[in-house]
Amino acid sequence: MTEEHTSPTEVAAGTTLLLVDDDGPFVRRLARAMESRGFTVEIAESVAEGLAKAKAAPPDYAVVDMRLEDGNGLDVIVALRTAREETRMIVLTGYGNIATAVNAVKLGAIDYLAKPADADEIFAALTRGPGDKPEMPENPMSADRVRWEHIQRVYEMCDRNVSETARRLNMHRRTLQRILAKRAPR
Q1: What is the pLDDT of residues 68-91, one digit of tens each?
Q2: List-wise, which residues carry 4-aspartylphosphate (predicted)?
Q3: What's the burial of 8, exposed, middle or buried (CB within 10 Å: 0-12/13-18/19+)?
């Protein structure tokens, strides 16, 4: 697919979009918003369903939630990249951190957005040209957020092994589990 767009607020007719998110009300609202911008939308509410749809009909674009009830959305990113290399994908999650953002981009995502992201932000990220850069955030990360990001980076380096991460951080395993279960601090 070429990078042509009919206007800044919609895409060419027949452009396909796969939405993979286990939050049913959110994904249906997002689907309606993206359909109004010209996309032909498919919804998957699990990793298994996302993998099946990625293999059956690889889309032009995809929005994939990182944490799904049956697994990790990065598995869907890998399947999409394998099925169709030029699919433009973004990762959307309520548990955003630098380590998983880097991993998502290495696997083929073009952007990474933290929830709550609205349809306009998602559309802008999907259709942003290769040279276009997103705006810089106005506020720097808090000390709590920096600490949380470091913990997430070590967790990813340990292949999401809680015991090994706790050992490397010299932290009690249960304390680490509580930190990992919470949303990222602002």
Answers
A1: 888 888 899 999 999 999 999 999
A2: 65
A3: exposed
Strand 61-65 with 40-44, pairing:
unpaired
Where does 143-181 sit in CATH, by number? 1.10.10.60
The residues facing 10 across adjacent strands are 7
Q: Is the pTM of this model over 0.85?
A: no
Exposed / middle / buried, residue 109 (Cβ in 10 Å: 0-12, 13-18, 19+): buried
Which amino acid belongs to residue 135?
E
Q: Decide yes or no: CATH 3.30.310.70 for domain 16-127.
A: no
- Cα 145 to Cα 48, 61, 93, 184, distances in angstroms: 32, 30, 16, 7
| Sequence ranges of the domains in the chain | 16-127, 143-181
Query: How many CB atoms are closer than 10 A to CB 99?
Result: 16
Give 140's pLDDT tier (boundaries 50, 70, 90): low
Q: What are phi and psi of 137, to 5 degrees?
A: -65, 150
